[in-house]
Design a protein that fits this description.
globular; four-stranded mixed beta sheet
């Protein structure tokens, strides 16, 4: 029995090294006026959905909930709707982004600007800031217009 455990642990370590996977999550936070929440980071260009990396021993939903609260003061209510899982291989091999739609939420506070999140705001879906990144525009098109989902971020 102990030998099986040792073999299993060794295989798991090998798989982590040979099949490394990184995962992030982002939320499409919609308000009652059909506006979407976008953030502008201090370390990368453009407007993005709020979100971030899934940490060790953290579920994707837990990471989403944490990131939305940290970056935008959003407290998720209920269960977000899974939009899709997208391959982000251009940025990092084996990187994936899990995108959820968040329709039920509260925002008791709006965090002050910081290095990580310099600006944030709700924008009409048909009047996004010019610098909104392509992946965010594509996800909104998939969601709002029912376009087929592209597996690439």
């Amino acid at each position: 029995m102990a030998d099986n455990r040792i073999v299993r642990k060794a295989l798991q370590r090998y798989w982590r090294l040979s099949r490394g996977l990184t995962m992030g999550t982002q939320g499409i936070v919609l308000d009652d006026e059909r506006r979407v929440l976008l953030v502008r980071h201090g370390y990368r260009a453009g407007w993005h959905f709020p979100g971030g990396g899934v940490e060790k021993n953290e579920t994707v939903i837990t990471a989403l909930t944490r990131e939305l609260h940290e970056e935008a003061g959003v407290v998720v209510e209920g269960t977000p709707e899974l939009l899709g899982i997208y391959a982000n291989f251009r940025v990092f091999p084996n990187d994936h982004v899990v995108v959820y739609v968040v329709r039920r939420w509260q925002r008791p506070i709006v965090p002050a600007p910081s290095f990580e999140i310099q600006e944030q705001g709700f924008f009409p879906i048909d009047a996004l800031p010019e610098a909104t990144v392509g992946p965010a525009r594509r996800r909104l098109t998939e969601l709002i217009e029912g376009k087929p989902r592209d597996p690439a971020w």
